[in-house]
Amino acid sequence: MTYGPMLADAVGLLSSGAPGRGLEEFRAAYPRARTRLVAQREEFDGSLHHALLIKDGDGATISLSWCPDRALPWPLRGVHRAGEHLLLRVNGVETPVARAIACLDFIWDESALADRLIADSLVREELEETREPLSDAALQEAMDAFRRARGLLTVEATRAWMDHHRISHQELEELVAVEAAVAALRARVAEGRVEGWFAEHGAQLDVARVARAVFVTEPAVPGAADFLPTVERAFADGSALPGEVFATLRRGDLERETAERIFGAAPGTVAGPFPVAGGHLLVKVLAVEPAVLDATVRGLVERRIFSEWIEERRNAAKIEWFWGIAERTAG
Asked: Within this chain, do residues 116 and 217 fall inside the same structural domain, yes or no?
């Protein structure tokens, strides 16, 4: 790659005062380079500073920044105000970020939170390099879908939701735009791979429609006809835990042994008990259906492919936590 003209154009982009507007034109001029525009709002004076990261085909990265005359001096960049360390204030009671993280520490062994934070960082990294602008029509379509999914079918309901979550209309549009960008990225990652994934792993999405209950102590297995009356009596006397009785299970979401027994059972028979958190699970199998690549399953396959893509990027990523004990937070 010839760096001279590219770097000259990059300096021109950064010094233009609005580098975000010219970024797509710069990318079109140098398609072999992966570029990422990084913006940092300085807490000290509120100024906005941009840097451009350019990665060529050999994997090397150029970091380029530009500072106008009389801007915030370099030694003061990154200086934090005391208020930046606050996460929340309720009735004057302040919660610093460190305390919030300490409160969450007890669920560290439940890794879903940490995994979601890492996945969000990896997705944002990709979107900063490849995100395509969202048209007004596409934004409106995404906004309508966002509202429908949350039951916000009237203007009043939407405003009440915004007030409850303390977000402005602009912030709502940004939230919806990010959600739409992630959906578009997921579709791009899965493009051309859905049929192949389904041919190899489609059995993971087989469906079992069941009635189920978790008993506090290991129960005697009732006959199929007595299953629901047994569950009713057990719930009434406290020997069964409250929960959803009728459910749809996917083979791939279950432990292998549990899946084999449930999906191998004839419809109308009882399977179990299976040891689970809080007790023992009994399942009456109502129907078993092999997965078919319809619109619903296609969406599930796209999500599985996207999860595998994130996992691949995570395995190659440098992950640094800035709280807790180093041995526990090392990625």
From this structure: no
